[in-house]
Amino acid sequence: MNWWENSFVTVRGNEIYLAGRAATRIAEEHGTPLYVYGRDQLLLNFRNLRELLSQKISLEARVCFAMKSNPNRLLLQLLQAEGAWIDAVSPGEFKAAMAAGFPAQKILFTGTSVSARDFEEAFAREGLTVNIDAFEQMELMRDIKRNSFKNKKIRVSVRWNPGMGRGFSPKAITAGERSTDGTPIKFGVEEKKVIPTFEKAVEYGFTPVGLHQHLGSGWVKEDFGAVKAAVDKMVKMAAELEHRGFPLEFVDFGGGFGPKYYRNQSLFPIREYVGYFSEKIRKARLQIRAVAVEPGKYLVGNAGVLLLRVEYVKQSYGNFFACVDGGTFHTVPRPAIYAQAHHEIINCSRVKSGKNARITVAGNLCESGDVFGKDRLMPFPERGDILAVLCAGAYCRSMASNFNLRDIPKEIVV
Known about the structure:
The chain folds into 2 domains: 142 residues, Lyase, Ornithine Decarboxylase, Chain A, domain 1 (Beta Barrel); 185 residues, Alpha-Beta Barrel (TIM Barrel), CATH 3.20.20. The protein is built from 11 helices and 20 strands. The mean pLDDT is 97.
């Protein structure tokens, strides 16, 4: 069995099958490029995490899907039916979640550089929780509440920045003072302003209910030590808030863990992580009712594949290119955006072959960085072959653009 196979992507007779159907047949039927999502794999990922949380945590466990990873309506409806919550980062997202069946009471809106219009949209949703990203937002929030929602109970929580972050790329680190490339981190309330933010929230008539943090995306095993240190700080801050008279309904540890993108990736130890923060909460005797996590990639990453057709094979200065009918920016933008991003690419009709070569899978956009994979050792492609870009369920369609006025591919769920 190949390391990348799961219940959705399997190999039969040297061919790729998706949810039991030949990938080449799916491509013939629906055309390419094409996003294909596996219903059962998504549900398996969700249920595994839910079961782990229920084993380790005696409190209510909230699995808040980070819908910025994939807002496909059918996938949202599947998760809603399973009891998921939603992590939304814009009014467009929380409105799409509600249209898919999620009640506002199960949505946490975490915005950044939030506009007055954004707050008005959020405050109008009964029961939605608004995550405060900056102490400096408070006066804007106060004015909107006074002018339009004077007597309304509005639930808020505080996203704090614990001064440390972790992520697979400098662009995916969302806490700390600066990212590893020197970029100042824009997210969250710094530690010394957390308690003043809670105080202002109460003063201005809001109802604080939670404390939230998010360190970044793409944790691996080597990040566990730093993540545990951040958990320690989170629990300590929550205990301090309770001590100062701010009863918390929940603490939210954010997301960060995900699926396996490449062979040698050391997976983040999720079971140990959940056990660690559960034990820390128990020892601190927090009076909270619920604990939340915000998986995105973990739920939908390996439940999605992009299918591409090889139009021809090009040779230039000793380099071989599989020239495909899609481009990264309008299908799988991650390799073009993040230097550290990797997606396995498999030939659907010839998973293995005695004739292998170093192939660069080149997109159809006018951009030098438009390559899905560089110098990949794979069966030498032929015109008409279908290639599968794996782990394309998260941050692919949701980040896709119409660069070069190319169409964004359609999506199917199987």
